[in-house]
Write a structure and sequence with these properties.
The structure holds three protein chains of three kinds. Chain B is an alpha/beta fold. In chain B, 12% of the residues lie in helices and 27% in strands. A five-stranded mixed beta sheet of chain B has the order 2-1-7-5-6, covered by helices on one side. In chain B, strands 4-3-8 form a three-stranded mixed beta sheet, with no helix packed on it. By secondary structure, chain C is α/β, with parallel strands linked by helices. The chains are: A alpha+beta, B alpha/beta, C alpha/beta.
Amino acid sequence: MKVSAIFESGVLTEERPGAVSPPEALWKSHKGGLVIVECPQRIPCNPCNTSCPTGAITEFADINDVPAINYDKCTGCALCVARCPGLACFVADLTFGEGMALMKLPYEMLPLPTKGKTVKCLGRTGEVVCEGKVENVAEPLRDRTRVVHVSVPIDKVSDVRAIKVV
Amino acid sequence: MDLIDGHPVLDFSHGEKISFNFDGKTMEGFEGEPIAMALHANGVRVYRNTPEMKRPRGFFCAIGKCSSCFMVVDGVPNVRTCVTPLKRGMKVETQNGRGRVELSCDEASRS
Amino acid sequence: MRELKTDVLVVGGGPAGLSAAASAAGAGANVLIVEGDLHLGGQLVKQSHKFFGSKEEYAGTRGFEIAKILREEIANCEDRVEIMLNTTVSGYYREERVVTAMVGEEEYLRIVPKKIVIASGAQERLIPFPNNDIPGVYGAGAVQTLMNVYGVVPGKRVLMIGAGNIGLIVSYQLMQAGVEVAAILEAMPRIGGYWVHAAKVRRLGVPILLRHSIKRAIGETVVTGAEIYELDDKFNQVGETEVVECDTICLAVGLTPTNELLWQAGCRMKYIPFLCGHVPLRDKCMRTSNEDIWMAGDVSGIEEASAAMIEGRIAGLGAAKALGFNIQDEMFGEYWVRLKNLRAGEVGEKIRAGVLNATVDGWEENA
């Protein structure tokens, strides 16, 4: 399938704007991680900005703007992960150690994962990328959207976008 | 009944569980919920047969707008079962064709 | 026949109708809401996903929670708002300015309102294919009603037709209910809904087959499968027909305004494809060409619930103002700005064009 057709069915490819990773040097050293927002289409929506406590997701001039990120201000708190109606925000912490990264992913399915459990980590088309270990399950907004903290090999960070509890 | 067993986001609260009758069979459903939903939970998908082509029909819109789910309820035909609440002991029947209303001479002259 | 009188009759208790009722009652009018279904909230009650938009449109809040917020607002004007559920408006008699309605299936009543806000919403479209009438071919809204309102399992394996927002969202909701989604078919070369909604279902492994359509539903009395095929640029079949096993075919191929009452009332109507059907012409305050009738929500053109709620506020204010209640013009202005912002992006392009085409500067009174 052509790259454009893949994108048009809802899968981000590296050729498209929106597949933006944080600046490498900062990312590698930043405890708590930095946010990755995969929201390439202008739609009327701004909760990522209004939920951000540090102003890292900068204010929208127009509510249809795509999110712009000031990585220096991002603390990796993952409030945007919990709030985004499109489940398009993810946090990756590269300082987890021993070749592993900690990803903070939104999760609204059953069964709920439990701490310590091994889960399948899925890529953008639902393919199994690797296994990951659940380090924490949070519900920051008490609204049933969970933020699952899962450790994955550091080289899988740009592929893992969901988990499957088996 | 074929109900969703656990949901990540929603909590379901049901009315009282009651019995009703569908084409001679006793079934269970929740009082006050639409008849069509109770039937579907009991595995019933065919609600009527059309007048001309005798085609089976179930519900389609489930918001009272499309006429697909008409059934005979307690003897009354063309009841929109997707927005008619289930009651204890209700008699629900598959509707064949247009349905008939029996009017006595008295009633007919009054209306 | 029972007769009811009210300042403002609101036809439909969905997001637009509840918002209209709240703003009219807030201005001091007595309001009667007539709702055909068994609950207030319209389609909001079955929306388990979080809404887009800005804070004012409850962005980040789940649809059914927004319904609760609106119901509470209505409850707070209790003595001015009367609610009739399971009551369907069946006609409008222009000469007498009387509305008839049906309570349940057998009791009829007359309503004599001073002003009317019609917020009758929309209905699901059907596309033609053999066997599209057999049980198991369900509208997307019906599937949502089953699983999200009443907790009934809609089927074991569902084929979704249409990758607009509704098709994408309902697919996600099916997975939340533990139902398998075989695939989402989309005849166009791209998804019609928000890209992020597509990404959500794609990463859970659901294929979205662009340039694909359904050929026929398979099944004697109920659906047991579907034949699907790929389309070329001219929408002709390419390649072999494939069979998908499924017990439910969910149609999410668009909505069309439920506009019968507006036709009956003699409102000037116009066919506007961008608004998905015949819609009434309206002024900026959502008044129709009938001086007693306003409208809001999907009946004025298919759009998101966030826009419906703002239109409802405007229509409610408009009706209250016409009754002589004290409404500052700035109150309208704030809502107009919010509507404009919501429609500003690329996805709002068609809505903008449609609304422009349906809006008049003003009505010649007593024409």
